[in-house]
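Below is a filled-in request sheet from our internal design queue. Each sheet records the structural input a requester submitted and the sequence that came back. We keep these sheets so that new team members can see what a complete request looks like end to end.

REQUESTER: design group, bay 2
PRIORITY: normal
MODE: inverse folding
CHAIN LENGTH: 191
BACKBONE (tokenized):
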């Protein structure tokens, strides 16, 4: 099912509605949809490298707005909708740990989750459940999601189609390296 969904997402890069599909994909992935928008962002950027940063901006905006929807789901509809989304991804056991991260790191937790392969939707829903300050949530989301999508756009603009294969191979490793660097930077600047 996910493979078919993945190919369905990719087909939008070949239509005149690719940028709208990118916005809607980024929006929905931040609160419930399983396919990350990077897939379509990369396909669009390979097709039109000169528009890579425009695509990244659309993707970041859609993702942050979708994150706000996830926040609202957690804040107002956790029992009705939020629990089902978190259970669908098999991450119910992680919600308590996410609460610890929010209590300790605030917006940094959102920013790091937004940048990495960690399911961002679980963090958006948890932020609403835990009543994290919405301005902090939005700031962390813009930093994390914007950073991620602009990095992908920069790599695609710089490396072109050859970069697509490399990015697909190493994206998870890059994400985990960024987490490690962010944690080191946090503790360094905290001292």
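RETURNED SEQUENCE:
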């Amino acid at each position: 099912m996910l493979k078919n969904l993945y190919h369905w997402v990719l087909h939008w890069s070949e239509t005149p509605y690719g940028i709208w599909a990118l916005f809607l994909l980024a929006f929905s992935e931040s609160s419930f949809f399983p396919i990350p928008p990077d897939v379509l962002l990369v396909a669009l950027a390979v097709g039109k490298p000169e528009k890579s940063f425009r695509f990244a901006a659309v993707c970041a905006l859609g993702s942050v707005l979708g994150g706000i929807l996830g926040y609202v789901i957690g804040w107002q509809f956790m029992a009705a909708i939020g629990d089902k989304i978190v259970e669908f991804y098999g991450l119910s056991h992680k919600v308590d740990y996410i609460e610890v991260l929010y209590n300790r790191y605030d917006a940094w937790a959102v920013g790091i989750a937004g940048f990495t392969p960690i399911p961002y939707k679980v963090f958006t829903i948890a932020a609403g459940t835990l009543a994290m300050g919405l301005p902090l949530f939005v700031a962390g989301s813009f930093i994390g999601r914007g950073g991620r999508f602009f990095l992908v756009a920069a790599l695609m603009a710089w490396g072109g189609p050859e970069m697509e294969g490399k990015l697909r191979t190493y994206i998870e490793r890059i994400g985990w390296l960024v987490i490690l660097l962010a944690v080191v930077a946090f503790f360094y600047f905290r001292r």
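SHEET NOTES:
- The chain has a mean pLDDT of 83.
- The chain has nine helices and no strands.
FILED BY: M.R.
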